């Protein structure tokens, strides 16, 4: 939901800002802009559309000279005001000496605008952000930091801000409240960014800003303050990802690369959590690294909350917890949960899942649970994210940066974390025995190689996608774990290919959804729960009789659907509770190939942003 960058150092800022924005385009891509401070003062260039239009504008000279070694930049996902040159960031005050880039929403902007207009300010854009530039100017008396801190007192809502001023040119001010912001500490240069990949070309040493903190970046050092102006000390963190992890690595799109990252990401997420005790040598799970001890297993209930794909992981978590631990478990959509009147118990444990760790609804659900006294385990992919910092325990998915808007490797590694936590709970509660555990561990370890095998055969899915290209409706159906995978598969397809795609619990088919089925429909049945094979077989026959084309995803040793379905895709045999990690992969590939065949960019679907940091 918008990406911001900033640079102050000894090199030309403009190309550095553009390269940083390229790494953040997944956060929003309807317009972009930069502001640079040089000998000639502050210059701004901005353009509607993808970043390349801004680059063309700068190169063609339509934009100004843009020379100077300090600047800020922005890639936008519009909230207030349509995508247009004028609504693009940076926004400036009336005199054009102060420039601001903003990620978030200023909730009281209308009130502030009216107040500023009453003081003679005329607005140029329809954005909420412009009020910030004018407010800072209103308080500016030669010291940019003081002016920013004064302006912040009047802002309600969420923001990550980068601010520069030609009358205070030796520094950049950065502040955050409920929107992510990272400070990169380089040698003779310092940077700001909404996300780490934008910094990696320069440094892996970062400071994570807390809510209501400000950073003042000079060329040779960074100072930190509270919003009240008190000096803060902060620890430097070292990022382990290298820059290559955030590149496409020869694949046509990030989505395809990230689908292929899954075997390694699964191993990276699993391995550090395994240990061998003995003698006799016995393999077990170790969650000490995240601070998990026996007291957690006394939970009366586990509630798993998340949004989008992460919510689908939560549903699988519910089934896994019930199956492996016999603890009552619920999966909740965070955006619903926060507005309900939920019943809490201090013995509840909340597992909050978020790839970005910054999803506004998910954070709100976590904060409600925390306030009630419940304990929180976060599963997230982003080290230092708000979720990671506010939860009691954090389990990272070691998936590496996920750039494509459609989540793939985050999902399967979230599942890996859930299985590990559920197995550890089960062991502590006696529903899993020490003798039984190695069987699960072996199966978890095999998943990486099995995913590799599936990906080696991706052309089968590509061919199928080519044949089914014209299907206007694609429905996924399954039962239990397979229903959750159906939901995820339907979301993937609709996100990247704009196909009308839905998921049904197969047993619900005859309660309504079957009315939608005709010969323009493809129904994909996910069949990995053997106790339900017979029921699934009947459901497939039912939709086939209504004219649907049918495909089945099942194990490589199951032949019972061969005569029923038009086509059968096979996944390697695994434990039935672990099958979602494999059964989702053909569906990810199918969504990807349909999008590509339709000439769409699967990395940047229309109307979406990677990280939804506003309600
Ligand atoms: O960063 P999060 O995991 O909290 O994001 C949650 C959803 O916004 C996200 O999963 C979204 O549904 C994806 N675009 C799915 O591919």
Strand tally, please? Answer: 27
- Main sheet: strands, sense, barrel: 8 strands, antiparallel
The protein's oligomeric status is: single chain
Report the C-alpha radius of gyration, rounded: 25 Å
What small molecules are bound in this structure? 5-amino-5-deoxy-1-O-phosphono-D-mannitol
CATH fold-level name of the largest domain: Glutamine Phosphoribosylpyrophosphate, subunit 1, domain 1
Protein structure class: alpha/beta
Give the strand content. Answer: 15-25%
Tally of separate domains: 3
Shape: globular
In which range does the helix fraction lie?
Answer: 25-40%
Query: N- to C-terminal separation?
Result: 11 Å
Q: In which order are the strands of the major sheet placed?
A: 3-2-4-1-10-9-11-15
Q: What topology emerges from the helices and strands here?
A:
Elements: E1 3-8, H1 13-24, E2 31-38, E3 41-48, H2 51-60, E4 70-76, E5 91-92, E6 98-106, H3 109-118, H4 130-139, H5 144-152, E7 157-165, E8 172-177, E9 182-185, E10 190-193, E11 205-208, E12 213-217, E13 222-226, E14 231-232, E15 237-238, H6 254-260, H7 262-270, E16 274-277, E17 282-285, E18 301-306, H8 308-325, E19 329-333, H9 334-337, E20 348-354, H10 360-371, E21 375-380, H11 386-390, E22 393-396, H12 409-429, H13 437-456, H14 458-467, E23 473-478, H15 481-497, E24 500-505, E25 521-526, H16 533-545, E26 549-555, E27 567-571, H17 580-597
Parallel strand pairs: 18-19, 18-20, 20-21, 21-22, 23-24, 23-25, 25-26, 26-27
Antiparallel strand pairs: 1-4, 1-10, 2-3, 2-4, 5-6, 6-7, 7-8, 8-12, 9-10, 9-11, 11-15, 12-13, 13-14, 16-17
Helix pairs in contact: 4-5, 7-12, 7-13, 8-12, 8-15, 12-17, 13-17, 14-17, 15-17
The structure holds 5-amino-5-deoxy-1-O-phosphono-D-mannitol.
5-amino-5-deoxy-1-O-phosphono-D-mannitol is lined by residues 307-310, 354-356, 359, 362, 405-407, 491, 495, 608, 611-612.
């Amino acid at each position: 939901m918008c990406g911001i960058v900033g640079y102050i150092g000894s090199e030309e800022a403009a190309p550095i800002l553009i390269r940083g924005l390229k790494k953040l385009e997944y956060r929003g891509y309807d317009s972009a802009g930069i502001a640079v401070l040089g000998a000639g003062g502050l210059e701004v260039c901005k353009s509607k559309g993808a970043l390349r239009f801004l680059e063309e504008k700068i190169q063609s000279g339509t934009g100004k000279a843009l020379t100077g070694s300090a600047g800020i930049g922005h890639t936008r996902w519009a909230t207030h005001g349509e995508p247009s040159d004028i609504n693009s960031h940076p926004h400036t005050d009336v005199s054009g000496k102060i420039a601001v880039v903003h990620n978030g929403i200023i909730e009281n902007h209308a009130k502030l605008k009216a107040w500023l207009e009453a003081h003679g300010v005329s607005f140029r854009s329809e954005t909420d952000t412009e009020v910030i530039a004018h407010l800072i100017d209103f308080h500016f008396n030669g010291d940019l930091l003081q002016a920013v801190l004064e302006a912040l007192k009047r802002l309600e809502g969420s923001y990550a801000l980068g601010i520069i001023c030609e009358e205070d040119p030796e520094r950049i001010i950065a502040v955050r409240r409920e929107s992510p912001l990272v400070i990169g500490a380089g040698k003779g240069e310092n940077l700001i960014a909404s996300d780490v990949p934008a910094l990696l070309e320069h440094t892996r040493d970062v400071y994570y800003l807390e809510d209501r903190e400000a950073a003042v970046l000079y060329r040779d050092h960074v100072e930190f303050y509270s919003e009240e102006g008190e000096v803060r000390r902060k620890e430097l963190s070292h990022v382990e990802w290298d820059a290559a992890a955030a590149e496409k690595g020869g694949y046509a799109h990030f989505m395809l690369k990230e689908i292929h990252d899954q075997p390694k990401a699964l191993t990276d997420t699993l391995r550090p959590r395994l240990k061998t005790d003995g003698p006799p040598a016995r393999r077990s799970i170790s969650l000490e690294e995240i601070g998990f001890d026996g007291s957690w297993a006394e939970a009366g209930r586990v509630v798993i909350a998340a949004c989008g794909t992460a919510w689908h992981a939560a549903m699988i978590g519910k089934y896994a917890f019930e199956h492996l631990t016999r603890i009552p478990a619920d999966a909740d959509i965070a955006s619903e949960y926060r507005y309900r009147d939920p019943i809490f118990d201090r013995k509840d444990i909340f597992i909050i899942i978020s790839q970005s760790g910054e999803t506004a609804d998910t954070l709100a659900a976590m904060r409600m649970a925390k306030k009630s006294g419940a304990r929180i385990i976060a599963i997230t992919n982003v080290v230092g994210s708000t979720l990671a910092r506010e939860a009691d325990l954090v389990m990272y998915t070691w998936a590496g940066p996920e750039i494509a808007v459609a989540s793939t490797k985050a999902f399967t590694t979230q599942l890996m974390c859930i299985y590990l936590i559920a197995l550890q709970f089960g062991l502590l509660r006696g529903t899993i025995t020490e003798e039984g555990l190695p069987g699960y561990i072996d199966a978890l370890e095999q998943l990486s190689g099995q995913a590799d095998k599936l990906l080696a055969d991706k052309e089968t899915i590509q061919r199928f996608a080519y044949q089914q290209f014209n299907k206007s409706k694609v429905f996924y159906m399954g039962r239990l774990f397979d229903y959750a995978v159906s939901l995820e598969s339907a979301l993937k397809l609709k996100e990247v290919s704009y196909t009308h795609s839905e998921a049904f619990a197969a047993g619900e088919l005859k309660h309504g959804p079957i009315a939608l089925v005709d010969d323009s429909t493809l129904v994909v049945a996910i069949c990995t729960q053997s106790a339900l094979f017979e029921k699934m077989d009947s459901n497939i026959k039912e939709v086939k009789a209504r004219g649907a084309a049918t495909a089945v995803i099942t194990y490589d040793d199951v032949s019972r659907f061969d005569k029923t379905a038009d086509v059968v895709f096979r996944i390697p045999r695994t434990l039935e509770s672990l099958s979602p990690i494999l059964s989702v992969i053909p569906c990810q590939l199918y969504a990807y190939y349909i999008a590509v065949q339709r000439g769409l960019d699967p990395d940047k679907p229309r109307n979406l942003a990677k990280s939804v940091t506003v309600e």
